[in-house]
Amino acid sequence: MRLDGKIVLVTGAAQGIGRGIALRLANEGANIALVDLKTEKLESVRGEIEALGRKASVFAADVSQRDAVYAAIDHAETALGGFDVMINNAGIAQVNPIADVMPEEVERILRINIQGVLWGIQASAAKFKTRGQKGKIINASSIAGHDGFALLGVYSATKFAVRALTQSAAKEYASSGITVNAYCPGIVGTDMWVEIDERFSALTGTPKGETYRKYVDGIALGRAQTPDDVAALVAFLASADSDYITGQSILTDGGIVYR
Ligand SMILES: NC(=O)C1=CN([C@@H]2O[C@H](COP(=O)(O)OP(=O)(O)OC[C@H]3O[C@@H](n4cnc5c(N)ncnc54)[C@H](O)[C@@H]3O)[C@@H](O)[C@H]2O)C=CC1
Ligand SMILES: CC(=O)C(C)=O
């Protein structure tokens, strides 16, 4: 699964799953363009990648802004000398019963989780075509993109949408030699789950930590997922070993959702 010399852009790379993916792919030989809103943390990840002997670039962008995503890809190409793989990882959670959801919060999550992925697909495919090369696009969905979760209804809808975009884009870009796939993690111990757990507590009165524990207890393999567990699948999807796979949204959850 070596990625020697490949140029990979990762959004949401400042922490959590995105950071884990960036480090894993750098370990496989890739040079990484790091994109996020949190520039201080991005600089720290850049240091970790350079310590592995790989090149890294940092670009601050809000993935919900189409122009910013195009600019991030241009920057990656210029800074690192090419562009081979796009990883649309950035996303936010939102915990609210359907009865209480309000327009502003729906608009915010749709802009980041759906439009962010859409602009990432569109801009990276355009760049691969301009460069006259093949490419790989890899999107973050979730187990919540296969099953709707209570109190995570709008979030789940965005992750179902990522699967739809992944399938449609795979069909539209296959003839250009571009593959499009998604990874669907389960319960990963990142800041996102700290936030989800706190919000469940506030809404239901469940003691802090209980919701996370309950979900982890439901995992067949008996432990929470790490960013590196997710990164192992993404490394495969970024590598030549996955060249004959497109349009798939692949579960990596330790045994929660079975499809
Ligand atoms: N943590 C989990 O259990 C799971 C997470 N996922 C998905 O994996 C992806 C990464 O999640 P985590 O690392 O857990 O989350 P996280 O909250 O720890 O990290 C997300 C990163 O994305 C960045 N980000 C958020 N909005 C952005 C925007 N508009 N523009 C640029 N960057 C932005 C944040 O600054 C942050 O660095 C998300 O798409 C999430 O929905 C999927 C399944 C499970
Ligand atoms: C954050 C997320 O996608 C789940 C299902 O936990």
Quick structural gist:
It comes from Asaia krungthepensis NRIC 0535. The chain is an alpha/beta fold.
- The parts where pLDDT drops under 50 for at least 5 residues are none
Number of strands: 7
Rg, Cα atoms, Å: 17 Å
* Main sheet overview: 7 strands, parallel
Structural category? alpha/beta
How many individual helices? 8
- The assembly state of the depicted protein chains is single chain
Bound molecules: 1,4-dihydronicotinamide adenine dinucleotide, butane-2,3-dione
Distance between the termini: 25 Å
Report the average pLDDT across residues: 98
Spatial order of the strands forming the largest sheet: 3-2-1-4-5-6-7
Helix content: 40-55%
SSE ordering: EHEHEHEHEHEHHHE
Question: Could you say which overall geometry the principal axes of the C-alpha atoms support?
Answer: globular
Estimate the strand proportion: 5-15%
Write structural notes for this entry:
InterPro entries: 23BDH, KR_dom, NAD(P)-bd_dom_sf, Sc_DH/Rdtase_CS, SDR_fam. It comes from Asaia krungthepensis NRIC 0535. It holds the Pfam family adh_short. Keywords: NAD, Oxidoreductase. It is an enzyme of class 1 (oxidoreductase). A seven-stranded parallel beta sheet has the order 3-2-1-4-5-6-7, with helices on both faces. Helix 1 (about 15-25) crosses helix 8, helix 3 packs parallel to helix 4 and helix 4 packs parallel to helix 5. It has helices at about 15-25, 40-50, 65-80, 105-130, 155-175, 190-205, 210-215, 225-240, and strands at about 5-10, 30-35, 55-60, 85-90, 135-140, 180-185, 250. Helix content is about 50%, strand content about 15%. The chain starts with 6 loop residues before the first strand and ends in a 7-residue tail after the last strand. The relative contact order is 0.15. It is globular and about 55 Å long. The protein has about 260 residues and is an alpha/beta fold. The mean pLDDT is about 100. Strand 2, helix 2 and strand 3 form a beta-alpha-beta unit. The longest helix has 29 residues, at about 105-130. The chain is built from eight helices and seven strands, in the order E-H-E-H-E-H-E-H-E-H-E-H-H-H-E. Bound molecules: 1,4-dihydronicotinamide adenine dinucleotide and butane-2,3-dione (BUO).
